[in-house]
Amino acid sequence: LASLLNDPTLLVTRAYVAGEFVDGDNGTFAVTNPARGDVIADVADLSRAQVADAIAKAEAAQKDWAKWTGKERAAVLRRWFDLMMEHQDDLGTILTAEMGKPLAEARGEIAYGASFIEFFAEEAKRVYGETIPGHQRDKRITVIRQPIGVAASITPWNFPNAMITRKAGPALAAGCSMVARPAKETPLSALVLGELAKRAGIPDGVFSVVTSSSASEIGKEFCDNPAVRKLTFTGSTEVGRILLRQAADQVMKCSMELGGNAPFIVFDDADLDAAVEGAIMCKFRNNGQTCVCANRIYVQAGVYDAFAEKLADRLSTMKVGDGLEEDTNFGPLINAGAVDKVREHIDDALSKGGKITFGGSQHNLGGTFFQPTIITGATQDMQVATDETFGPMAPLFKFEDEDEVIAMANDTIFGLASYFYAKDLSRVYKVAEALEYGIIGVNTGIISTEVAPFGGVKQSGLGREGSSHGIDEFLEMKYICMSV
Ligand code: ADP
């Protein structure tokens, strides 16, 4: 992998703790390239005691970092952003090698990830307070917002860069320090952020990356350690619940970006070509492995057959392959378990009357490559209706009217992203207001941006990432009442 990089020193395999690159007391764990199955790096496997040490150093470093002016913090964060963009190609190559997404998507993720550092660098200067007219003649009331302290993050493999920057940007801008535990599948994209943080001049201990093969041990340390005041997690609802329970002992402030089960609705007045394009972006981006990917595609009866046909035509132009090859559209799935899940959803759908009209099986490239798949005749009793596939399978459900589809779309414990295509204005308002989701894409399949608040309702999460609201998650409000 190092030989593919313009700057081979960006391939970091030791953990980044308080400005030092350290070996793991538990040895190393292997990182593999999902496209080829070969080991590309052995990464430091830290012990729980080493993570506790990183937290202690983060606590010490945070005291001074909190005293920096917003403008001072903004300057080093801006340098961090600049370095990410300067090395965008190398960061993209590392990301593709360990995660599998095509290079173009990986480079896109680096730009997207970096944008959170840029945005929150700017926000660092705008952590405003309030003055409130006193409740008595002698009283003066001021509200200030202060960094909460040490933040700990746990992130998944599907966006190895952006899920970390989305948390580190606001945390550091607010004046918190952060200890980041990346997924064991994708530690290299996190470690290179440590290297670039060092080059940018982010003070030692303000940002650390603790790599470990044991997620639950690290999760326990994050929740039990009294120095940690904030836990920010992206991952499954199942693990989110575990962490919330653990965090309860310390009444720790938590942000949770959890699972989705996004509906994608095509009404009969939609621009069908645009809807097909949106579905391709939304369902098949990252090979279906995002929490905002369309999971259920509802198509109104009058346009159902036409939509299914156009979607298949469009998919037939796309190439499955190694993400490191420039013309690849869809890479491999992350691991064998991910392939099993897609298979399970397909088998379940077939047993309940669904039909495969495109793809449906493992790709002839072998390994974890899977054909993009369309299933028609999907129904609400299928597993895919309640459970995220996290893979390249598009189930098409048929519906007759608005009320019916709104009820079906909301019939889930999740509430992250949803999408619909329609032209009628009153329909657009009515449906957007009725969908119980934190994010609504209207006539678009792509909704992620650093300038908007990303997050879910119901069991999809707590809190928001991005936008001016994102920094609130790392701030405490303090009210000062003064008698004059
Ligand atoms: P995904 O399906 O995206 O991997 P998970 O919720 O399983 O979603 O994992 C998200 C992140 O949480 C990963 O980095 C994983 O290692 C970590 N994780 C899994 N289980 C636990 C746990 N019990 N405590 C802390 N972190 C965990």
From TrEMBL:
Protein name: NAD-dependent succinate-semialdehyde dehydrogenase
Recorded family membership: Belongs to the aldehyde dehydrogenase family.
Gene Ontology biological process terms in this record: gamma-aminobutyric acid catabolic process
Pfam family, one: Aldedh
UniProt-annotated catalytic positions: 257
Organism: Aquicoccus porphyridii
Matches recorded under InterPro entries: Ald_DH/histidinol_DH, Ald_DH_C, Ald_DH_CS_CYS, Ald_DH_CS_GLU, Ald_DH_N, Aldehyde_DH_dom, Aldehyde_DH_Superfamily, Succ_semiAld_DH
Keywords assigned by UniProt, alphabetized: Oxidation, Oxidoreductase
Molecular function in Gene Ontology: succinate-semialdehyde dehydrogenase (NAD+) activity
CC per GO annotation: cytosol
Start and end residues of each Aldehyde dehydrogenase domain: 21-480
Gene3D superfamilies: Aldehyde Dehydrogenase, Chain A, domain 1 (3.40.605.10), Aldehyde Dehydrogenase, Chain A, domain 2 (3.40.309.10)
